[in-house]
Amino acid sequence: LTTNNGNALNSRAPLKVAIIGGGLVGSLAALSFARRGHEVHLYEYREDIRRAELVQGRSINLALSQRGRKALAEVGLEQEVLATAIPMRGRMLHDIKGNRTVVIYDPCTNQCLYSVGRKYLNEVLLNAGEKFPNIHRHFEHKLNYVNFNEGRMEFKRAPSKEIVEDNADLIVGCDGAFSTVRQQMVRAPGFNYSQEYIEHGYLELCIPAKDGEFQMPENYLHIWPRDEFMMIALPNQDKSFTVTLSMPFKVFKTIRSSEDLLNFFHKYYADAVPLIGKERLIKDFFKSRPQHLVSVKCYPYHYGSKALILGDAAHAMVPYYGQGLNAGMEDCTLLLSLFNQPNLSTAEILEQFTELRWRDAHAICDLAMYNYVEMRDLTKRLSFRWRKWLDTQ
Ligand code: FAD
């Protein structure tokens, strides 16, 4: 193990590790391997996010929980991330009449979630990697093909479309829910895989800051539960809220004009209309298309001593439990704790990783699916129960 200046204190022979995907899990995995003195090659399909003005991708901000914090603490970054994160101490439920009810997550010990910017977190992780001369970053390299037995990979570079080859002792797929590394694993005998799309899609809107201030109390995860639909909002550093509207695709399809949209919002989310602003609501709603959500389960997560998948590549889940990233980061914690055991071979480490991880990963995918119903439906009931209780106090 190393300190943050990169002096390796690793008792095992350094490996050449190729990390595919420089998202949140990939950049954390790169850092974790580099701290142990391995030669890391980080391959990312997109340009360097630190130079990108507009970040294409899912969810502008995320709820960071204990799992993610622990993984960040292990690479010395927890405090840096928390310094700019916004604590969310509970849910603030908005009923259809605009009444708000607070449900604190943990009234006893004050534990809470933190809202963090995806881009910011990715930048912190990539910047921390700059301290390590043994991390080699290759942006705009898309993995096209991988041969695990030979440890050989083929990438297409952007924008030249030039084909580049490389090889590695260990290939770690952190390439997200539609992982190319996993696609190759699926061909191996004994690899089980299932995926499920839900009928709901999501679209992101924004409640901007007003006069430089938040328009709603910022230390909450705001939820507008509406049976079949749901809207949530998480606070951002710039005092805006990122709003995620989730509903069945068939409902999205019924909203074709500005009038349809305003009628829909006035009916279901009337209190949010003045916060978002009519013009902005119309602009943001029609500028993007609702995105699909998929849940992925597989077993095993490795191929011999040669390849492994982590994060969404191994266990993408619907976002309603706020644990996708947190679970992906926890993968790194577990994997690298196994790498700390000097008597285990790489093959044994990967096998143990699968065995120690798959049940928990499958369970959290199921819990996320359960919370999909809970958040849009049960929270509504809970809010009534809670209000009744408040009325009696
Ligand atoms: P990704 O973030 O998908 O990153 C994969 C990376 O691999 C990308 O940079 C991609 O460009 C790159 N890549 C893909 N293919 C290739 C290739 N062939 N070659 C090279 N590179 C490639 N999780 C939480 O914990 N809390 C939340 O609050 C939360 N909210 C969410 C809200 C929404 C709406 C959604 C959709 C998800 C949410 N999640 C949340 C889940 C979280 O976003 C994911 O679990 C997390 O991003 C997974 O990280 P990852 O690095 O495994 O994959």
Please describe what this structure looks like.
The chain contains twelve helices and 20 strands. The protein has helices spanning 24-35, 66-74, 78-84, 118-129, 180-186, 249-254, 258-268, 273-276, 278-287, 312-315, 324-339, 346-392, and strands at 16-20, 39-43, 61-64, 86-88, 90-94, 100-104, 113-117, 135-138, 141-147, 152-157, 163-167, 170-173, 192-197, 200-207, 220-226, 229-235, 241-248, 294-299, 302-303, 307-309. The radius of gyration is 22 Å and the shape is globular. The protein has two domains: 16-86 and 117-197 and 294-377, FAD/NAD(P)-binding domain (3-Layer(bba) Sandwich), CATH 3.50.50.60; 200-287. It is of the alpha/beta class and 393 residues long. A six-stranded mixed sheet has the order 8-2-1-12-20-19, sandwiched between helices. Helix 1 runs parallel beside helix 4, helix 1 runs parallel beside helix 11 and helix 2 packs parallel to helix 11 (324-339). Flavin-adenine dinucleotide is lined by residues 20-26, 43-46, 58-59, 62-63, 142-143, 174-176, 180, 202, 244, 311-313, 319, 322-326, 328.
